Each structure stands twice: as C-alpha cells, then as structure tokens.
Amino acid sequence: MINLLELYIKLVGLILVGFILGRKLPNNTSAYVGQFLYWVGVPISIIGFLLQTDLSGQIWIAPIIAHLAIFLGALLAWLRIKAQAHFTDSVPPATTQGSLILAAMVGNTGNLGFPITLAMVGKEYFAWALFYDMLGSLFGAYGLGVFLAAKFGNNTQNQMQIAKVILINPALWSFGFGLLLHQVTLPSPVVFCLEKLAWGAVALSLMLIGMRLSQLKSWRKLPQAGSSVFIKMLLVPMILGSTLSFFGVTGNAAQVIVLQMGMPPALATLVIAETFDLDRDLAVTALAMGMIVLLFTLPVWLWLF
User: Fold this and answer.
1) Could you say which of 11, 57, 202, 266 is the most buried, measured as most Cβ atoms within 10 Å of its Cβ?
2) 140 and 108 in contact (C-beta within 8 Å)?
3) How far, in Å, are 92, 150, 241, 259 from residue 246 at the CA level?
C-alpha cells in the first residue's frame, strides 16, 4: 500500500504539474514536448530500461495476450452497439461507433503503463510491459485501429499515411536496437546515464498527459464514453486476467499483464479519431474519464492478481 501511495503521489503530482503548465504555456507547447518524446525521449527510455531487463522466460507471450485483449475489447464494444440498436431502436452514427470501439481496444500502455509497471513490479519484469506495448498496443492501434477508423470514419485520404506510422516509429526501432545492445556489456557510466535519462523521459511523459488533459474540455458524452472505459478497464482485464494461468503466466508477470490490460484508452485513439474524422468529443471524454477511473482500479488489480 505504501508503494501504491507513493505511485499515486508521483503520478498525480507530475500530471498536475503538466496540467498547470498546459494552462499557462502556449497551446502548441504540448505538441513540441510530444515531438521531443516521440523522437528522442521515449526511444532513450526504452533502451535505458531494456538494458537492465531480464529477457528470459515467456515474455513473447505478452504481445499475444495484448492482441487477444485488443480483439476482445473491440468485440465487446461492437456487441454493446448491437445491443443498443436492438433494445432501443437507436443506432449511434458511424463516427461515434468507431470512437466507441477504438476507446475499448487500445490502452495507454506506454506513457502510463511503463511507469506504473516499474513502480509496482520493478525493472526485472519491465520486458513484459515493453513487449505488450511495442508488439501489441502499437500494432493494435495503427493496424486494426486504422482499419476500423477507415471503415467508420469520413476521411480515408490519410489511411496509408497513418499505416506507415508503424514503419517509421522511432520507439519500435529503439526497441530493436535495445535488444541488440542487451547482448553487449556497456560501461557502467553509460548504463547509469541512460537509466537517468529514461526516468526523466518517463516524468516528462506524465507531464505531457497533464498538458493534454488541460486542453480537454468536453464531458457531454460521458455515458457513451463510460461504456467503452468499462469494457477496456474492467471487463477485458477481468476476463483475460482469469485465464493467464492457462498461458503459464503467473506471479509478477501476470500482474504486469493485468496492469497493462487495465490502462485507460490510449492517446493514439484521439490521434486516429482526429485523422479519420471520428467522434472526437467521445474520444476526448474517454481519455479523461479513464485517467480518473485508473486511480480506483489500480488497487483492485494489485489485490486480485
């Protein structure tokens, strides 16, 4: 419980600092911070933590479970839409359906999942979170997510442009580079500096979340967003979490997977919603609501798993 309290203080504190800065600084500041993290900060943090991570065991099963969670979230959201149509004779617009499904699919397993995993489980199991994010959430968002956005959205002109994000994503390249460096013994000062830079990038990522939340002002679609958040952060972790032992995943590894499955909707869902002209207000509301719900669900998953 002490660790959880310390985590809350750090998470809420850094996000609050970012929120305040987001209100005080020019609106484009978050864009510059995001670009820096995208091209420099996140890649360095991945390499820095990966060098000290144990890559033995069944970590390759993490992305498999990630894809199962993504497909299950999409399926449950689709069934929710069909149920609404059946019982109320009202069908949400296609753009709203797309945002509902996206918000239930992909979680913020990087900016939030990484620091939470490191704080609650430790660096020894960071590879599980990393593989879940890099080979699971990334491809889920810009693979199936783009496909669904093109199907439900009004703008398909940028479909190929978004799909190429996977190929040029520096985080994915640094992931491969970090795997290669993991086989090499680097000087201790280099490893030390990379670790400190990695933690700095984590702190800046949390502040960026606060900066972006300070720009989110729409709460009028709270009921619809609530259904996606319920699926993403409660149903999916509960259903798949109870089956992890069948995959041979137990102990701390299982805890990491459940924590990753229980993360709020990813920022990528908002990016995709804006690009394909989906329901942006719904995507925004789901992001903000998910951050609040996380404070209550974290102790539940830590207690159950």
Assistant:
1) 266
2) no
3) 37, 35, 10, 18
- φ, ψ for residue 241, nearest 5 deg: -60, -35
Distance, first Cα to last Cα, the chain: 14
pTM of the model: 0.87
Mean pLDDT of 10-39: 88
227: alpha, beta or left, given left = phi > 0 and alpha = psi -120 to 50?
Answer: alpha
CA dist., res. 162 & res. 121, Å (int): 34
Tell the burial category of 250 from Cβ atoms under 10 Å away from its Cβ (0-12, 13-18, 19+). Answer: exposed
CB 286 within 8 A of CB 269: yes
Q: Exposure of 196 by Cβ count < 10 A (0-12 exposed, 13-18 middle, 19+ buried)?
A: exposed
> How far are the Cα atoms of 10, 86, 257, 294 from residue 7, in angstroms, in the given order?
5, 43, 18, 12
Measured distance CA(249)–CA(61) in Å, rounded: 9
pLDDT higher for 86 or 116?
116
Residues in the chain: 305
Going from the C-alpha of 294 to that of each of 27, 149, 186, 252, the distances in angstroms are: 26, 26, 37, 19
